[in-house]
TrEMBL record:
Protein's GO biological process: Notch signaling pathway; protein ubiquitination
Segments forming domain RING-type: 21-62
InterPro entries per UniProt: Deltex_C_sf (IPR039399), Deltex_fam (IPR039398), Znf_RING (IPR001841), Znf_RING-CH (IPR011016), Znf_RING/FYVE/PHD (IPR013083)
Record-level GO cellular component terms: cytoplasm
Protein name per Swiss-Prot or TrEMBL: E3 ubiquitin-protein ligase
Amino acid sequence: MDCIDSNLLKSNTQTMESINCPICLDDLGPSYATLSVCQHCFHDSCIKQWIQLSGKQTCPTCGHIYGLNKGPQPPHGQMIITYISTPLSGFSIEQYASNEGPTIEITYTIPSGIQGPLNSYPGQPYTGT
């Protein structure tokens, strides 16, 4: 299973009488896959295609996340979090640890590059920040 962690699925050979695959809505039949934590059942090919096309290792029925969920963020981007001791307008000053503050500033630095398979236009260039 190259598109999915092998610990995610277990194969079954029992017939699921009158139960349909939630993805394609056909009968599950004698061979199906069960997700390891939530126990939802799908045709093996349906769940593999779901994970490959969606780019998410999640159950399509309940949304349980299996593994690391990755989005279309660039591989060499950087996020810097800065805690500022001055509160934003309208917010009061409270007690914070020495490495925290009432205001959190997040700065993203993303270099220019080529869009990946989870982006809107795979293979096309994008301009960084």
